[in-house]
Amino acid sequence: MDGLLLNTEDLYTIAYQNILTPYDKEYTWDLKVKLMGLQDREAAKLLLSTLDIPLSVEEWMNAVKLQYEKIFPESQLMPGAKKLVEHLHKCNVPIALATSSTKEAYKIKTSKHHPGLFSLFSIKTFGSSDPEVKYGKPHPDIFLVTANRFPDKPKPEQCLVFEDAANGVKAGRAAGMQVVMVPDAKLDRSLTTEATLVLESLEDFKPELFGLPPYDT
């Protein structure tokens, strides 16, 4: 979801930097790449230890929650996201949302502007608040758990993952699935090599390449 369907990766940067500025610390791109796709508590632990911030994980997460409530309701869809989700739903292609966000954060990001689009996902897995997802990305748990929730329980090789983060690509591949990656323009391209296909935008995706119904011309 974050950085692929919604522009929330940009908003995460703003939220984190707002908290770090009083400590004279910078939320760098290199650190952000390491955190992308991690469960919330894992990300908090890594950030606090890396930047030597004198906060507990709980204190950090409470501060982040306040930032989310201010910033995330204005999240916007990424280019091509609406077209893809609506097309797959219309064509009766089973789709699910697999996000490292908590259910609470998901609601903040989607409820104001995007409830209709996200209602098209009949299956939603929230990695940071789902007890079945034992380990966050780059572990495969979130994708294996989500696939198992489809009624026909497809094999991993029958599943296609869409990701923006290197950790997410690693998780999808570890699950035995194909992965379409739409990385941030700033991401080192050496971190995209494990993806099945790399695109500059979801707008460039051609469903027929993966045996899916093509867009109407």
From TrEMBL:
EC code: 3.1.3.96
Keyword Transcription belongs to the record: no
Keyword tags: Hydrolase, Magnesium, Metal-binding
Cofactors demanded by this protein: Mg(2+)
Keyword check for ATP-binding: no
InterPro entries cross-referenced by the UniProt entry: HAD-like_sf (IPR036412), HAD-SF_hydro_IA (IPR006439), HAD_sf (IPR023214), PGP-like_dom2 (IPR023198)
Molecular function via GO: metal ion binding; pseudouridine 5'-phosphatase activity
Top class in the EC scheme: hydrolase
Pfam families, alphabetized: Hydrolase
Lineage: superkingdom: Eukaryota
Catalyzed reactions per annotation: psi-UMP + H2O = pseudouridine + phosphate
Family listed: Belongs to the HAD-like hydrolase superfamily. CbbY/CbbZ/Gph/YieH family.
PANTHER family on file: 2-DEOXYGLUCOSE-6-PHOSPHATE PHOSPHATASE 2 (PTHR18901), PSEUDOURIDINE-5'-PHOSPHATASE (PTHR18901:SF38)
Designated name of the protein: pseudouridine 5'-phosphatase
Organism encoding this protein: Arctia plantaginis
Organism placement in taxonomy: Eukaryota, Metazoa, Ecdysozoa, Arthropoda, Hexapoda
